Amino acid sequence: MDLENDNESGLICATFTRYQGTPLSIKSGIEIDDDGNMCLYLMEEDATNFEGKEKYTVISDSPVRRDFNVLFSPDQFSEALQAYNELKASGCIDIPDELLKYQVGDTIQIAGINDNGKFRYDVDGLTNGNMAILATCLYFMKYQTNEYALDLADEMADLYGSIITI
């Protein structure tokens, strides 16, 4: 995923059309908890075209759409599943009741091992909602890593700026 085109709002919209079920968008946001940790909260399901979409960083599975910032490709599936599992284990994802039907859970089956020794998954039964959540989790993990790196760079600049004087 390419994070170059991020908007600064902390709002994410994953719009998926190529998997099972009705094409949809899942809106999410990034929130800082009381301990200073970034958390992902999924907000609601919407149509693929909705009013105010420009306020979101839009993730799409379709390269022919023109209204996206980040393209999710099938080869990112394993990384997205890992991000989802990490967020679930850490409690840094909030999924409201109306979106629980798209939780990945037991819907993903291992279909074997590919040539490079990684698991190959059977994704035929996954819905647009399942994939939208996985792509959002991957984007969030990369966003969080980039934010942390930028914070460290700022701290280093502040430190070196106070040491070096001209």
From TrEMBL:
**From which domain of life does this come?**
Bacteria
Protein name (Swiss-Prot/TrEMBL)? Uncharacterized protein
Source organism of this protein record = Vitreoscilla massiliensis
**Lineage of producing organism:** Bacteria, Pseudomonadati, Pseudomonadota, Betaproteobacteria, Neisseriales
